[in-house]
Design a protein that fits this description.
Length: about 500
């Protein structure tokens, strides 16, 4: 605790601010209406943190609300939540009748260091690899000993000597290389759609799967059909069972895909089949800037294969044939919808049936990545303004351990109930002073870790909590504030030469 001793010499008509020390002063009653300054003691209890939280919330800002929540939960002061910042609000509430220069020596629990768990994030790896986001691991050229200390220094600028961080990171024994990965943006085989049948279309489904069927001319839309367990979209101008369709009616219809954010290198492919060819029915593909093909800005896509005249045998269907790849790079950086447009004439004049399946848009991502990686843990301690990796004995709970305690995961607050028992089983011959770091799952995707020491025949978590005492002085109701003040005020006495303070000065 910091102490400053001031011998205050007051000459002239000043009233000496002498304070008699009251050991058993209980606070409020003796302070109310007092005109003389007094000194007393107070020990913080758990309930006081609720008072501090209430005062903080009166400020009505997000930062103080978060601090209030943390103090209410943890009920302890620390480097992140120093007593001198929050005790004045408590003293103001508890001692509203304080006289000027009254002093209180407050005793409280203080966490002088901390042990915490930190998992390297994707942003950390991106920073480590100079902006490359796809490596996601440390390697021999970037080991934990040299990389993690700088990360922790940036993450915890207020760290105290003795602070510990148990760090989880991914590690690869090999350096990163170039990987090519095909990234799908749209991949639809229509097998999750409900088949619709004659005169029922996309719009008749409860869930259109973000695809739209649109009638531009006539009354017909594409529908969902199935054959041999395979679903597909069918376009046809021939609907003999529909009373609204007359021979010679022009039918122009669309199947429109969901929105796709096009990248450089995005490529479109699909498959078509055709049947019952009787004229050159038009089947086209467009890039659209909205899902309404009637009003959208349209760009016709060329250079792909359609199952048409040479492939279609009258009275039957071709197999599905690939379109080939259509480069969409000209649309990079925009959102597009792919519109499949069919135009035919009802009756026998121009009603060839077309079928559409396996619509795919994807791009090839060339990334820097490692081939394999594994999860590792490190124990880093802050000493002399530096984070250093300390060799520790780690144990990561296995599936059988969770089965023994009847848990699939362990909350941090519950860990002291389970881990000491497990350690007794795992290390039956432990010696006094042995230390082990236990890593356990707090959820299906997250870990935590605690350090345990063996002493007096039992395992217990390492604690950083100590008791501290600080002095606070009331500055007076003109300022209405208690302030941290470690000064010791001395009343000078006058007497014979040997005991006259003025003579000594």
């Amino acid at each position: 605790m910091r102490k400053n001793i001031f011998f205050t010499v007051v000459i002239a008509m000043l009233v000496f601010a002498a304070c008699d020390y009251h050991k058993d002063f209980d606070g409020l009653d003796e302070l109310v209406n007092k005109t003389e300054a007094v000194t007393f003691e107070y020990t913080v209890v758990n309930e006081d943190f609720a008072i501090i939280a209430t005062e903080l919330k009166k400020n009505k800002n997000a930062a103080d609300s978060l601090t209030a929540t943390a103090l209410s939960k943890n009920k302890i002061f620390s480097v992140d939540y120093p007593a001198m910042q929050y005790l004045p609000s408590l003293l103001k509430v508890k001692y509203p009748g304080a006289s000027k220069n009254s002093a209180v020596k407050v005793t409280f629990a203080y966490k002088n260091g901390s042990t915490g768990f930190y998992k390297l994030t994707s942003d950390n790896y991106t920073q480590i690899w100079d902006g490359v986001s796809t490596v996601g691991a440390l390697t021999p050229s970037k080991p934990a000993n040299s990389i993690v200390p700088d990360l922790l220094a940036g993450k915890y600028p207020k760290a105290l000597d003795g602070d510990v961080k148990i760090v989880e990171y991914e590690y690869s024994d090999t350096e990163p290389g170039q990987n090519e990965t095909v990234v799908p943006q749209l991949d639809e085989n229509f097998n999750s759609f409900t088949t619709t049948g004659t005169d029922k279309y996309f719009s008749d489904q409860e869930d259109a799967k973000a695809w739209k069927g649109v009638t531009e001319t006539g009354v017909l839309q594409p529908d969902i059909r199935a054959y041999s367990g395979n679903n597909y979209v069918q376009f046809s101008a021939h609907r003999s069972s529909n009373p609204d369709v007359n021979a010679g009616d022009l039918q122009k219809m669309w199947a429109v895909s969901p929105a796709v954010d096009i990248r450089d290198g995005s490529k479109l492919s699909f498959e078509t089949a055709g049947g019952y060819f009787n004229a050159s029915t038009v089947f086209e593909v467009y890039a659209l800037d909205s899902d309404n093909p009637v009003t959208a800005n349209k760009t016709k896509l060329e250079g792909w294969h359609l199952a048409e005249t040479d492939d279609i045998v009258s009275g039957s269907y071709t197999p599905f044939m690939p379109s080939g790849e259509i480069d969409l790079s000209d649309f990079a950086g925009t959102t597009q919808y792919i519109g499949f447009c069919y135009t035919g004439t009802s009756g026998s004049g121009n009603s060839t049936t077309y079928q559409l399946d396996n619509v795919n848009i994807s791009y090839t991502d060339i990334s820097t990545a490692v081939s394999e990686k594994e999860t590792r843990f490190g124990y880093f301690k802050f000493e002399n303004a530096v984070w250093s990796n300390i060799d520790k004995d780690f144990y990561q709970l296995a599936e059988e351990d969770y089965q023994k305690i009847g848990k699939t995961e362990i909350a941090v607050a519950d860990a002291p109930q389970y881990l000491p028992i497990l350690l007794q089983q795992k290390a039956p011959y432990a010696q006094s002073g042995d230390i082990k770091v236990m890593v356990y799952k707090t959820s299906a995707t997250a870990n935590a870790a605690d350090e345990y020491v063996y002493k007096d025949g039992a395992w217990s978590p390492v604690s950083f909590v100590e008791t501290q005492t600080e002095q606070y002085r009331f500055s007076g109701w003109d300022h209405q504030a208690w302030v941290f003040d470690p000064s010791i005020y001395v009343t000078m006495k006058k007497g014979i030469a040997e005991t006259d303070d003025y003579m000594l000065v």
